[in-house]
Amino acid sequence: MDISAFKKLFTETYGTEPSVYFAPGRVNIIGEHTDYNGGFVLPCAISFGTYLAIAPNNDQKMRFKTTNFKYKTEVPLSELSRKHGDEWVNYPLGVIDQFIKREVSISTGADFLFSGDIPNGAGLSSSASIEIVTAVALNDLYEANIDRLELVKLSQLAENFFVGMQCGIMDQFSIGMGKANEALFLDCRTLDYEHVPLDLKEHSIVIMNTNKRRELSESKYNERVAECGVALEELRKAKPMIDLSDITLDEFEIHGALINDPIIYHRARHVISENHRVKLSVAALKRGDLVTLGQLMNESHESLRHDYEVTGKELDTIVNAARKVKGVLGARMTGAGFGGCAIAIVDKRYVEALINKVGHAYEEQIGLKPIFYVARVGDGAGKIA
Ligand code: GLA
Q1: Gyration radius of the chain over CA positions
Q2: Does 171 participate in catalysis according to the annotation?
Q3: CATH number of the structural domain spanning residue 55
Q4: Does pTM surpass 0.90?
Q5: Segments forming the whole domain that contains residue 97
C-alpha cells in the first residue's frame, strides 16, 4: 500500500489532511464455530487488511468512500443510527452507532476513505477489519478514551445488532489484539487470552481461496447459532450450563443422548470436540509438534464437514487436494465456511508444488481458479500515519 498516494487521494477527494489507520484480517488456525458457544479459538492477524484515511469536517455529515468499488454516500449526523439496507456502509455506521450508545459526543462530522486488500467474501474477516479500523480511528478522533478490549467488544455488537450477523468475538478480538508471529489462544467466555508464538520452523501457512463466494452464509450462520441454542437447552437437563462449551467431551458421551434430533446432536458434538482440539493444538504448538497440529486441523475439517455441515464441495475439494501434496501436515477450512478460504500447513520446500497441484486439481473438479497466498502473521490494528 502506497500510503502517501492514499493520503493524496483523500486530500483530492475531501480537501483536508487525513490520519491513516490500519486493521488486519485474520485466519483461524483451529477452533471454528466455538466462539459464540463460549469456547476456545486460535486465530492470528494477517498482513492483508483495511486502511482508513479519516479527518473531521465542519459539515455535520459523515462522508464515506472506498477505493475498492464505485460507492460513496453521506449521512447527516442526525441520521447516524439508521441502517442502510444491506450496504457495506453499515459496518462503519454500526460502529458509530455503538459510540453514540456509549454517549461519546460526535461533535463534528468526519470524512472516511477506506481501502482494503483482503479478498472480498473470502472469510478472512474483511467486515471485522472495517469495524475495528473504524473503532480505533473514531476513538482518537472524538477523544473517547475507550480501551482496546472495549473497542473489540463494541465492534462485535455493531455486527450483531446493526449488521444482523450473530457472530462471536473471535474476528474482532484477533484483529484488535493480534501480534506479529503470534497466535492468540482465546477463551471466548472469559476473554482470558494468551499469545502463543507461532513458530512453524520450516513450514508456512498457505491460504487457499476457493473463490466460491460465501452466499447465504449470514442466514446459514445464524441458523447454526440457533441450533447450538437448542442443543444447550437439551443438555441443561443434565447439568447447569451457561453455554455449550460448559460440557467436556467425556460428559457429552454420557449426556449427549438427551438430544433427540440427530442434526442438533451433531452440531453440539462438533462444538464440544472442537474445543478439545483447540486445547490439544495449543499444547502441540508449544512443544513444536507440528505433525500433531496438522492432524488436529484435519480432524477439525472433518468435524465441520460431517457434524457441522459448513464446508461444501469447494472447501472439501481444495482441502482434499492439499492433503495429497508432499510436505503438507494438515489442511482445513478457516472462518465461517460455506465457501471462502482454507489453510494448509506445508513444508516451505513444497509450497510451489502445493500451488501447482492443488490449483490444477481444484480447477479441474470445480471449474473455478483458486488463489493462494503465503500468510504473514502481522500485528493488530493501529494508527500508521
Ligand atoms: C465468522 C464469525 C466468527 C466465528 C467464525 C467461525 O468468522 O464472524 O465469530 O464464529 O465465523 O468460527
Answers
A1: 21
A2: yes
A3: 3.30.230.10
A4: yes
A5: 3-196+379-383
